[in-house]
Specification:
There is one protein chain. The protein contains 14 helices and 16 strands. By secondary structure, the chain is α/β, with parallel strands linked by helices. The protein folds into two domains: 210 residues, Response regulator (Rossmann fold, 3-Layer(aba) Sandwich), CATH 3.40.50.2300; 147 residues, 3-Layer(aba) Sandwich (Rossmann fold), CATH 3.40.50. The strands form three sheets. Strands 1-2-4-3-5-6-7 form a seven-stranded mixed sheet, with helices on both faces. The chain has a seven-stranded mixed sheet with strand order 9-8-10-11-12-15-16, with helices on both faces. Strands 13-14 form a two-stranded antiparallel ribbon. A hairpin with a 3-residue loop joins strand 1 and strand 2. The longest helix has 20 residues. The chain is globular, with a radius of gyration of 21 Å. Keywords: Amino-acid transport, Signal, Transport. One of its GO terms (biological process) is amino acid transport. This is ABC transporter substrate-binding protein.
Length: 413
C-alpha cells in the first residue's frame, strides 16, 4: 500500500483477501479509483463497501484473471480536493473508472472532469437530480457519469410510497411540515415532497429549509409544534445527530419520518445516546430486509470485517464495483467508450435490488431505475437500539414503535 501526500490523504490500496489464481499474478491489475469522505460515516462506507467487493471479485479470480486494485482517496468533504484526487487517480494511478462521494456538491464537481478526461464516474451516495439531468441534456459530453443511488426525486417518492402503506391505514397522517437542510440534494427532494405528499392525502403546512451550520433547533421545533402537523418529513444528511438529539430533549411530540442519512448508519443509536428512538428513515437496505439473496450475507460480511453494520453507501458501492467488473467483462475492454456502452446494459441483481440505468430518452439518464422490480429502498425505524425494517412488507413487515411523547392518533375505522 502506498501513501501519496499533497493536501490529500491519497492511498492506493491493493485489496484481495485471498490470492488470485497464478495466471492473474502475471497480468496487470485493473485499477478503480475510490474518492470519498473518510471522516463521515457514509463516506467511510464507500471505501469499505468497495474493499469488500474487490476482495470478493479477486478471490473468485478477478476480471478475466486480472485482479482489481483500488486507488483510495479521501476528499475531506471538499469539492476541490475531490477534483484533485480525480485528476491524480487518472494521471498517476491510471484508473479505468472512479466510484465515490455521497455529497451531491462533490459529485457535481466531478461530473465535468469525468467528461473532460473520458473516465467513467459512478456516484454511489449523492442524490441530486442534476447529476443525471446533465447527462440527459448533453449526453455526448456527459455520458461518462452514472448515478448508482436513488435520485432526490425517487427518495421522496419512496418516502411517500412507504408513508401511504405504513401510516395512512393506521394513523391520521393528514398534515406535515417539510424539514430539510439547505443543500443541492434537498431542493429536488423538497420539490417532489411538495408534489407527492398531497397525492397521498397529506397537506403540507410549512416548508422549512435550515442552514447545515444550525446548532440550535429549538426555535424551529417550537414553530413546528405550533403548527401541529401529524408528521415532520425530513431531508437531512450532514446534521442528523443534532436535530434528533434536540427533538428528544425537547420531547417534540411529532414523528420524524423521511430521509435522515446519518440514521442509516448502524452507529446512530450510540451517536445520539438513544435519542434516535422512533426515528424513521429511508435507506438502501437494513437488518431483516432480504431484498435479494445477497443483502443479508453482505451485511454479515461487512459487520464481521468492520465491526459495525454498513451505511447505505456500503451497499451501493459494493454493488457498483461488481457492476463495473461485469461491464468490463462484457466490453472485453477498459476503453472508456466501450465501458460506457457496457454500463448502459447493466442488469445486475445486487444487495439492494435489480440495478439498471435509465437510457437517453429519460430525464434521469444514467440514474438507477426506481420501482418495485428494481430498487425502491427500505424504510427502517430505530427501536431499542436496533434498526428495524418496516417497508416494503415483502422485506420486513415489523410493527412501528414510538417513544411515549410521540403522539399519533389511530385512524378511525
Amino acid at each position: 500500500m502506498t501513501c501519496l501526500q499533497a493536501g490529500l490523504l491519497a492511498t492506493t490500496a491493493v485489496v484481495g483477501g485471498l490470492a488470485a489464481p497464478a495466471s492473474a499474478q502475471t497480468q496487470d491489475p485493473i485499477k478503480i479509483g475510490i474518492i470519498a469522505e473518510e471522516s463521515a460515516i457514509a463516506g467511510a462506507g464507500i471505501n469499505k463497501g468497495a474493499q469488500l467487493a474487490a476482495d470478493e471479485i479477486n478471490a473468485a479470480g478477478g476480471i478475466d484473471g486480472r485482479k482489481i486494485e483500488l486507488a483510495i482517496y479521501d476528499n475531506h468533504s471538499s469539492s476541490s480536493d475531490a477534483v484533485r484526487a480525480f485528476q491524480r487517480a487518472v494521471s498517476e494511478d491510471k484508473v479505468v473508472a472512479v466510484i465515490g462521494s455521497y455529497i451531491s456538491e462533490v459529485a457535481l464537481a466531478l461530473e465535468p472532469w469525468s467528461a473532460r478526461l473520458h473516465v467513467p464516474f459512478i456516484t454511489t451516495g449523492a442524490a441530486s437530480n442534476d447529476i443525471s439531468k446533465h447527462v440527459h441534456e448533453d449526453y455526448d459530453h456527459n455520458k461518462y457519469t452514472f448515478h448508482e443511488w436513488m435520485t432526490s426525486a425517487f427518495i421522496a417518492d419512496s418516502v411517500c410510497d412507504s408513508m401511504k402503506q405504513l401510516l395512512q391505514p393506521k394513523y391520521k397522517t393528514a398534515s406535515a411540515v417539510i424539514f430539510s437542510e439547505d443543500a443541492a440534494w434537498t431542493t429536488p427532494l423538497d420539490n417532489e415532497y411538495l408534489a407527492c405528499l398531497p397525492k397521498i392525502g397529506v397537506k403540507v403546512l410549512d416548508h422549512i429549509r435550515f442552514s447545515p451550520d444550525t446548532t440550535d433547533f429549538t426555535p424551529i421545533f417550537n414553530k413546528i409544534e405550533g403548527e401541529k402537523p401529524d408528521v415532520i418529513v425530513t431531508g437531512i444528511s450532514h446534521v442528523g445527530v443534532q436535530p434528533t438529539v434536540q427533538a428528544a430533549q425537547q420531547q417534540v411530540p411529532i414523528l420524524m419520518v423521511g430521509q435522515s442519512s446519518q440514521a442509516t448508519s448502524g452507529t446512530f443509536w450510540k451517536d445520539t445516546n438513544g435519542a434516535a428512538s422512533g426515528v424513521i428513515t429511508q435507506s438502501a437496505a437494513a437488518p431483516g430486509a432480504a431484498l435479494t439473496p445477497k443483502t443479508q450475507p453482505f451485511m454479515e460480511a461487512y459487520a464481521k470485517r468492520f465491526g459495525e453494520p454498513p451505511p447505505y453507501t456500503g451497499f451501493t458501492t459494493s454493488d457498483a464495483v461488481h457492476v463495473v467488473a461485469e461491464a468490463i467483462k462484457r466490453a472485453g475492454s477498459t476503453d472508456p467508450d466501450k465501458l460506457v456502452d457496457a454500463l448502459e446494459k447493466t442488469d445486475y441483481v445486487g444487495t439492494i435490488g435489480r440495478v439498471q440505468f435509465y437510457g437517453k430518452d429519460s430525464p434521469f439518464t444514467h440514474a438507477m431505475i426506481y420501482g418495485p422490480d428494481n430498487v425502491t429502498g427500505v424504510t427502517l425505524q430505530w427501536q431499542d437500539g436496533k434498526q428495524i425494517t418496516l417497508w416494503p412488507k415483502a422485506a420486513a413487515g415489523a410493527e412501528m414503535k414510538f417513544p411515549s411523547y410521540i403522539h399519533l392518533d389511530p385512524a378511525k375505522s
